[in-house]
Amino acid sequence: MKKSDLAALLLLGALWGASFLFMRMGAAQFGSMALAGMRASGAAICSIPLLLSRERLAELRANWRSIALIGLSNSALPFVLFSYAAQSLPAGLSAIFDAIAPLLVALSGWLWLGERLNATQASGLLIGMTGVVWLIGGSMGFGHGGAAVGWAMAACVGANICYTFGAHYSHRRVQSVSPLTIAIGSQVAAAVMLLPFTVWLWPAKSPTLQAWVAMFGLAAACTSLAYVLFYRLLARIGSTRSMAVLYLIPVFGVVWGAMFLHESITLAMVGGSVVILLGVALTTGMLKLRPVAPAPLDAVEKA
Which of 158, 139, 128 lies closest to 92, judged by CA? Predict the structure, then answer.
């Protein structure tokens, strides 16, 4: 992986990690549907000027059905599901669940699409998931929410299933389309899909200034900018390596939650984050396992 791709991967992890902070800050005020709709609408408004060229508009017209499906699976549905989860789960714990997606992408690619994983990549995925389990174990003491917490965790898993489908579909169906066209077009599609529900379920009480600031940060930085970075990575390094960014999200999500919402960080969380980073390094090829060379025959005989 090139240094520029690695830098984009780290920046994307930081931005998407911050999205859980902003959702936690705004979900209670806006509600899950309104926050998701405003996020998609704000991202579309920020990004549309980049779409206004003949080439991009032509791409959009030729591939609008595929781009709309990507908007549903990679934006509209996950935005709603994670916003729902943010009303019950701490930002750090919600972010932890994002690390499930790389394993789902790799396993589904292997089982159904014939994609192969070498031993290093497979080891990285397993190590990364071990770190996720470690982080979850260190995060379960945030409180007892009963059924609401269980449904929130289920929503996080559902969002990751949507991401898995979107990653494979994008890589196989729209590889010839500019990543920028996909990123912007999918946000516009998500905004259109969510607009009626946003209006219908708009909160009766006006959200606070802090909630509005969180929503704007969520739309402009964590969505508009982040999705452009993501689709460029997807085109350059493929779906399995791109989804490895989701191993970084728990690390940043836990850090941002601790810094700005005073969520606790345990030793288990720190250890889990280190293990996750090791998994990312192996999965993306940043770190390669060297096979152990067999000892020379004469050395064995001497021994």
Answer: 139
Instruction: Look up residue 79 and give its two tokens.
Output: 């935005």
Note whether residue 302 is domain-resident.
no
Torsion of CA 169, 173, 177, 180, to 10 degrees: -10
Would 300 be classed as within a structural domain?
no
Task: Enter the pTM of the model.
Answer: 0.82
Query: Which of 242, 187, 185 lies closest to 218, judged by CA?
Result: 187
Would you say residue 296 lies in a domain? no
Q: How far is the C-alpha of 42 from the C-alpha of 137, rounded, in Å?
A: 35
Q: Tell the residue number behind the tokens 């549907």, with chain if given.
A: 33
Residue 216 lies in a domain: yes
Its domain, for residue 111, covers: 3-285
- DSSP H or E segment with residue 227: helix 226-237
pLDDT in tens, the chain (303 residues): 688 888 888 999 999 999 999 999 999 999 999 999 999 999 999 988 887 888 889 999 999 999 999 999 999 999 999 999 999 988 988 887 777 777 777 777 777 777 777 888 788 878 887 877 776 666 555 445 567 777 888 898 899 899 888 888 887 888 888 888 888 899 999 999 999 999 999 999 999 999 999 999 999 999 999 988 887 887 788 766 776 787 788 889 989 999 999 987 767 767 877 887 787 778 766 677 666 555 555 544 544
133's tokens: 């389990």
**How many domains does the chain contain in total?**
1
108 CB burial (10 A radius; 0-12, 13-18, 19+): middle
Distance, in Å, from the CA atom of 108 to the CA atom of 119, rounded to the nearest integer, reads 17
